[in-house]
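**Entry details**
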Amino acid sequence: MILRILILCLVLFVVELYAYQALRTVVKSKYFLVSYLVISALLLAFIVYSFTQFDRSVGQTGQSMRATGLLLLVYIPKIILTLVLFGEDIFRIGFGSINHFAKFNDSVDFLASRRKFVSQVGLGIAAVPFLSLLYGVTMGKYNYKVIKQRIFFPDLPDAFDGLTITHISDVHSGSFDNPDKINYAIDLINEQNSDLILFTGDIVNTDAKEMHPWIDTFKRIKEHKYGKYSVLGNHDYGEYVTWPSEAAKEKNFQDIKNLHRQIDFKLMLNEHAFIENGTDKIALVGVENWGVKFKKAGDLQKASDGLSKEDFKILMSHDPSHWDAEINNHEKNFHLTLSGHTHGMQFGIEIPGVIKWSPIQYVYKQWAGLYENLGRYVYVNRGFGFHAYSGRVGIMPEITVIELKKGLNVA
């Protein structure tokens, strides 16, 4: 532990040293440089203090989220700046070594002066993540996007051709800090006028009490023709904090399950229900959380007991890793799976038709949007809320509207 702290301190010292060198090369004002050093010291002190105050019996708080956001905002740009200047130092040392041993020019110092142009380039590059992260914590986290997706199924029951589903996931109500923005998002949900609304888990970060200030807000989600259904996510089990007793943990879990009833959603716990239109019907299946790297409470066999391969099925499963592990080759043929969980890491680049990238793709094969395997689909919602980092950069909070169509996909 002590060794890790020493290594971290050394890394921070190097990063701060390079950042200061870049500024000193470009800016000559001593007042500015001294001010920079003082502000940097104060920010680092706040970040360190905030993390030392983290209490596992409480979990994430507003202060810990602010500290995380500040850590990223301050040090990601500085790390990038360090890499640029470190690259220049490799060049300077290489050039100096060649000159020293070849003796091309004895009047040239072994280590050439740092070039102002390189520092300016480094500062310019570092400004991009700084401004992006600043946007993420001030505006991006509530920049809700309605994403519409049409999916074709040849065996969709005729009566459900054109069925619309609003899909939300990962509310994380304990992170909210702006009632007006949440009310705006609820209005967006209602404006979609979908036939069915499905919520795929993580109503809180940890504690049921986090949702209490928002119950009336989420009760404003209007009734939908075929109902309002939900499942649990990994954060709904209270496993990321230390509880005073198992009884307290279990009470919190029961309270979290009760939250779904309080906001007028039917919570599905490894079970299924049918939605019907005339003589046609669709099976709606909901499992508890099941993740390759997280809690495996979901029981797909129990949830689908009594269903046949021919029944058209929509499955709600919070963690998309469940799809590859159990769902997409399951003998009962789950036509459409809806998931969330990844948040798209709340960081990435998305330009439709051009690029779709996030670091989370190296952990989850299905991490945002629609994926298909032999006519079976999974849609991964990018999340309604945010967690840990109180912002979103490039991957915006999502309200999905899925339309089911009968026929073959000709796209």
